[in-house]
Design goal:
Number of domains of chain B: 1
Helix content of chain A: over 70%
Structural class of chain A: mainly alpha
Radius of gyration of chain B: 19 Å
Order of helices and strands of chain B: HHHEEHHEHHHHEHHHH
Number of strands of chain B: 4
Largest sheet of chain A: 2 strands, antiparallel
Oligomer: heterodimer
Helix content of chain B: over 70%
Radius of gyration of chain A: 20 Å
Strand order of the largest sheet of chain B: 1-2
Distance between the termini of chain B: 26 Å
Chain lengths: 306, 328
């Protein structure tokens, strides 16, 4: 096991983590401000990926595809917020779960209807394809490095938006006391639509970015959605900082666990048995991480104390 | 129009028995299989209804117990089928084809894992509980996929349905009758449980945790017991479901299945005795008829669900009896 392999895997984990952050940030923002649990967030991820694949296919431009992903997901988010989600803010969590579960069914089957069951492919843009040589002689795909950079840039941008702008003040105020900011003259329903569209846009963006290294297909959103849940449970629901830390923890645990647990087991087991139990344990590692965090802090690392 | 809930309940049970009887007369075995599917899904949802309807905790991971029940059947029957030993360290067994034994094992393992999962997840409630149960469900799903000994992603096929003393379970109607009787027994237990001091305590912990604690109840212990009972019932349903299909695969652990179990309860009516049964019958009927009409029937299922959430709180029973269901 060489240092190069370890660094490569750490970079892979970071890349996975920042993409999870894009998903988890929207989820946790929507929960923090509106108190809504949105299962359909994975569908918005899928909408972004399909929009990017379709537009990039027509125009040949990856950048146009990304713009389309952001726009399509944000638009879809704004529409479902105004048509369905708006009626659920005061409803019980069970109703929210059911309605957004229904939205998943509609989005998934609707997409299958339009695009068919076969996966689409989104090519990595020419300028970002191929490996780069990092200091220390490590060859690493440029596109994945770009993903890490984009993810970090979005994290910084989100922090600036929430901490440094007027809208950010309204969002934070909305988390604390929604009646009060309504009384102060902020149009709450517009603010809610905006926050929902923002979260949706982030999900769509990550769907498009990840879609270029995996295939774009129906049902791609839900595994990511559930990982994003794990992230915000670990980080604490409603906390963007928690989502960031949680996303990196989950990304690194999952990636490093998948590579190193089988090797670790091979130290004291025969190879085939180590491969079996190592990979089985690795598939469970992030959930074990979540369990440990829950035992330690039931409301997550950065969650409000009860 | 208001109809007595008791009358609705009786009609449903009679209908559920009547349809396969009718199918038996006109020799339509496929309809009997559909009815069996409805009965087994209803049983799984009755289990979920204990913790969701009475306890007010939205478990989005009940496919865990459904899957454990399924794999209990799959693994035991696999060893009996291949005449191989199942080595458990302390003792080894050569599997079994006997349904009662399989059911006991399925319920035992489901109850035990419900106990462990409950210890962790019941420390939380509300949205946290929903997300964490969902995540644990995913953990079992990926474990089932990555564990190659019992088929991994491909699942396990069992060639002959397991035995029940005195019955030929391969005859569709006999297997249906067996499942139907089990459903009735479990419904009876559910009704007794709901009216028992334990059920009332569980209900009060849902309505107001603080008040329940003030009168000396321990919500954690009550909920844990409810979760274990709930898991055991769903596990039993899983074993029957595996026997119906003579096949188990990791999809029995999938989050979609957990979601569908919740859907069944909501269609029928949350916390109602027969809510899950009505939900399961409607679900299987929709799946069959809409599924025959269009490949994309899930779109319509989604629209129906949205309509129920937005306009018909209380589900079908709520509509018929004019009462909203328990508030979760």
């Amino acid at each position: 096991m060489s240092a190069i392999l370890i660094i490569e895997q750490i970079l892979n984990g970071l890349q996975f983590g920042v993409m999870l952050f894009l998903m988890a940030a929207g989820l946790t923002l929507i929960f923090g401000v509106m108190g809504l649990i949105n299962l359909a967030h994975g569908s918005l991820y899928m909408v972004g990926a399909f929009a990017a694949a379709a537009v990039a296919g027509w125009t040949g431009s990856f950048l146009l595809g990304l713009a389309a992903a952001l726009a399509a997901a944000a638009l879809a988010g704004a529409i479902i917020e105004m048509v369905v989600i708006r009626r659920l803010y005061s409803a019980a969590h069970l109703d929210q779960v059911l309605a957004t579960f229904a939205l998943i069914l509609i989005f998934s089957e609707g997409t299958r209807w339009v695009f068919g069951s076969f996966p689409l492919f989104l090519d990595i843009p020419e300028a970002l394809s191929g490996p780069v040589t990092l200091p220390g002689g490590i060859q690493y795909p440029l596109y994945r490095l770009a993903l890490i950079a984009i993810g970090l840039a979005v994290a910084v941008g989100l922090w600036a938006l929430i901490e440094r702008t007027r809208i950010g003040i309204q969002i934070r105020a909305g988390e604390n006391d929604r009646e009060m900011i309504g009384a102060l003259g902020v149009d709450i329903s517009k603010l809610y639509t905006l926050v929902f569209a923002l979260g949706a846009g982030l999900a769509g963006l990550s769907g498009a970015l990840v879609g270029a290294i995996q295939s774009v297909q129906v049902g791609m959103g839900e595994p990511v959605l559930i990982l994003a849940f794990v992230v915000i449970v670990i980080g604490g629901i409603g906390s963007i900082r928690g989502a960031f830390v949680g996303a990196l923890l989950v990304g690194l645990t999952d990636t490093l666990g998948g590579v190193f647990l089988p090797e670790l087991f091979a130290v004291f087991m025969e190879t085939s048995a180590a491969q079996k139990s190592g990979s089985a344990l690795a598939s469970m590692s992030i959930y074990i991480l979540m369990g440990l965090v829950l035992i330690w802090r039931p409301t997550g690392l950065f969650g409000a104390r009860i | 129009m208001r109809i007595e809930e008791r009358f609705v309940n009786a009609t449903v049970l009679v209908g559920l028995l009547g349809v396969p009887l009718w199918a038996l007369m006109i020799e339509e075995p496929f309809t009997i299989t559909l009815a069996t599917r409805a009965v087994i899904l209803a049983l799984a949802a009755v289990g979920l209804n204990v913790i969701l309807g009475v306890g007010g905790l939205v478990s989005f991971g009940h496919a865990i117990f459904f899957g454990i029940g399924g794999y209990a059947m799959g693994i035991l029957a696999f060893h009996a089928q291949t005449y191989s030993e199942l080595d458990l360290g302390l003792f080894s067994t050569s599997g079994t084809n006997s349904m009662p034994v399989i059911w006991l094992v399925a319920m035992g393992f489901s109850a035990f894992s419900a106990f462990l999962i409950g210890l962790l997840t019941l420390r939380t409630s509300g949205v946290y509980f929903i997300m964490i149960t969902l995540a644990f469900g995913q953990m079992f799903y990926y474990f089932a996929i990555s564990w190659p000994s019992y088929g991994g992603e491909d699942g396990l096929s069992i060639y002959v349905r397991n035995d029940f003393p005195g019955l030929n379970t391969l005859v569709p109607f006999q297997f249906f009758a067996l499942c139907f009787v089990i459903l009735c027994v479990v419904l009876f237990i559910y009704a007794r449980l709901q009216a028992s001091p334990f059920g009332l305590a569980l209900n009060s912990a849902r309505q107001s945790r603080a008040r329940a604690e003030t009168v000396g109840l321990d919500p954690m212990r009550i909920r844990l017991l409810a979760f274990v009972i709930s898991g055991a019932i769903t596990g039993l349903a899983g074993a029957l479901f595996a026997d119906l299909n003579r096949f188990v695969s990791p999809t029995m652990f999938s989050w979609q299945l957990s979601g569908e179990l919740i859907v069944l309860i909501i269609i029928g009516g949350v916390g109602r005795l027969m809510g899950p049964v009505i939900g399961a019958c409607l679900f299987v009927a929709l799946e069959h008829f809409l599924g025959g009409f269009t490949e994309f029937w899930h779109v319509f299922l989604g629209l129906i669900l949205l309509a129920i959430v937005l306009f018909a709180r209380g589900g079908v029973i709520g509509l018929l009896t004019g009462k909203e269901g328990a508030h979760v």
